[in-house]
Design a protein that fits this description.
By secondary structure, this protein is mostly helical. The chain has one domain. It is built from 4 helices and 2 strands. A two-stranded antiparallel ribbon has the order 1-2.
């Protein structure tokens, strides 16, 4: 979309009207730089608890997808092994949160 500030990309697949934290959690590399830049440019400081809420919510959705995969017949393929490792890492991360 062309705006007065230049071209902007819109991800229509996940576009929703929501608090900024819904998208900011995934953009910040973990050092707070994106959150600080957002606050500086918009005057709105993202709420850390909401950032964490959306981060955990995404992980829980990914866990549900992977659990669903393993509830169906599977043969132990390389893809199954990768999915199992992903599932384990997601559960560990959510457990630590």
């Amino acid at each position: 979309m062309l705006t007065t500030g230049g071209w902007r990309m819109i991800d229509w697949d996940t576009a929703l009207i929501a608090p900024p934290e819904r998208d900011l959690w995934d953009l910040d590399p973990g050092d707070g730089s994106v959150l600080a830049a957002y606050a500086e440019r918009t005057g709105v400081t993202p709420a850390e608890p909401a950032i964490e809420l959306y981060r955990v919510r995404w992980d829980l959705a990914d866990i549900a997808v992977e659990v669903s995969r393993f509830r169906r017949p599977h043969a132990g393929s390389d893809d199954d092994d990768k999915s199992w490792q992903l599932l384990r890492s997601l559960v560990e991360r959510v457990s630590a949160a």
